[in-house]
Predict the structure.
Amino acid sequence: MTNHWHGILPSALSAVGQTPLVALTRLAQQEGLQCTLLGKAECFSVGGSVKDRIARRMIERAEADGRLVPGESVIIEPTSGNTGIGLALISAVKGYRCIITLPDKMSREKEATLRALGAEVIRTPTAAAWDSEESHIGVAKKLRDAIPGGIILDQYSNENNPLAHYYETYEEIKHSLTTSDLANKRIAALVAGAGTGGTITGLSRALRDDQERQHRDAQEDGEVDGTQRAVVVAVDPVGSILGGGEVGPYQVEGIGYDFVPKVLDPEKPNIDCWVKTNDDEAFAMVHRVIRTEGLLVGGSSGAALAGTMKFLREDPVGKKLAQQKDANIVVILPDGIRNYISKEWFLDGSLHAPPSNLAHEIAHILNRDITPASSVKQNGSNHHHVNGAAGKVAHEQGGIVHVDHVKVREGESGGDPCVAAGESRGAGEK
Ligand SMILES: Cc1ncc(COP(=O)(O)O)c(C=O)c1O
């Protein structure tokens, strides 16, 4: 599958994944890191996110086992954002009708993209409890039960979610490393945010299995494989319970939850430690990456990188890795800024940013005001609330939590495939 776009693609579906691993050299230098910092830029996937592969795999597997029939089935998902866009894109190419139910709080950009792809979009009240009839889940179930051919694939319990990363995303990372000119082509640490947990669970399982295989092969050849066990670091926003702490509001989209999704395997040996991040550090990092590396990443990418820096600065293992020249630190950057262009946290650092010295100089030369017209703030609405209600959250300032100390409320997602999408807390978006 690791074809990396040779020749002509039969359709957009072949442009799912195959994303580049990019050296974040300037960022690493600024941070005084000796290690090799590598970002897997998922915004290059055809639908713009890490979710395209799982959407394709969930659809193709459901087709293979006869649950999904082209021309007959209607894909309904009580979710939004990136999984919705992936499903809608594949539905567009394959000719499925697609209905996305999503809470009001989801961005206009996501709704516009979904509609452009031909999906029907039904907004639901954000405050509705996940198990109420008015919630996006309740509405999706109602539609599934009433529409002939209606089917909910459910990323939170669907095994094809982590499997897409096990078989595809991990192989892509390996391909990038083995075809690189790096002296060491192994992964020392892998960092990813967790929403459903499909990305980090699939990747860490693949990494563990791969390392075991390498050890076994070396033993069989009578050699000693001296490679250190790779560290897997999960990033979780303050306000989510996945990495410990209490439920609270936060703005970063796509990561964090108030229950443990079925597809997330949060314990050792899968995940070694959890790093908590807050909105401010995530959004500041987005602007930094865009400005220094030219990578137009989204909010959860900022969180993943902010978490990486915390791990490399504060964790004893991370500190050692930070100083090792041949240590490859792979960070998953799940989507791009396209989804967040109208968000105040993005505009604050772009259209609303104070003019530079060069801008002053230009204004002087041209003898006119060159301030962007839309930089005028409306009624102070650009103030975002950072974890406002989470005053008592133990992990408020963020930090590192080793998995031995994480207490998760296991089984809260229950057996209903839709429960997992039941974000009653109004925090992260999926
Ligand atoms: C922007 C963004 N980042 C990160 C994630 C987390 O990925 P996963 O659900 O595989 O944990 C998601 C999931 O929707 C997302 O949309």
Q: What stands out?
A: The pocket of pyridoxal-5'-phosphate is lined by residues 49-51, 81-83, 193-199, 253-255, 298, 300, 334-335, 430 (CB under 6 Å). The domain at 52-154 is CATH 3.40.50.1100 (Rossmann fold). Residues 379-396, 405-430 have pLDDT under 50 and may be disordered.
